[in-house]
Design brief:
With 151 residues, the protein is mainly α. Helices cover 71% and strands 0% of the residues. The protein is built from 4 helices and no strands.
């Protein structure tokens, strides 16, 4: 779990990898919660009790960073999904505008106004894609790819 958390120090990952990491971290978090609930007979070997408590403390120290990472991954996946949907919408809008120009179904002023509107929205989308992220890289413009990592 620790190496998985540390792998994000290198930067955000493609959404598919981040989604897998989020699922792994959820499983680990559930395992830590279950491990923490283990009850041991207090009459057990004191050394064994001490080792169990030490292990519980080490694992509990990971619970908050794991949950924070899970929350961040989920938030950034939602952001990326919304950006991708906006990108698809804008590309469709451009295609529609192109067809209208070919068909001459709208006037020059309308074309210019629509084009300016789409350009403004594309600029905003580009700006949003370039904002730094910790977990999920923006795949709409592919500007933040990093080398593939096993984690």
């Amino acid at each position: 779990a620790k190496r998985l958390l540390e792998s994000y120090a290198m930067g955000a990952k493609p959404m598919a990898l981040a989604r897998e990491d989020g699922e792994r971290l959820k499983t680990i978090h559930e395992w830590i919660v279950a491990f923490d609930k283990i009850q041991v007979d207090p009459r057990s070997d004191p050394e064994r009790l001490r080792q169990l408590e030490a292990a519980k403390q080490r694992l509990n120290a990971l619970k908050e960073p794991i949950q924070r990472t899970i929350d961040g991954i989920e938030r950034e996946i939602a952001e990326e999904t919304a950006l991708e949907q906006k990108h698809v919408y804008l590309m469709a809008k451009l295609g529609e505008l192109e067809q209208n120009v070919k068909d001459r179904s709208i006037g020059t002023v309308e074309v210019r106004d629509e084009l300016e509107n789409v350009q403004l929205q594309l600029n905003l989308l580009r700006s949003l894609c370039r904002q730094p992220r910790s977990y999920v890289e923006c795949e709409v413009d592919n500007t933040t790819s990093r080398p593939m990592s096993p984690f």
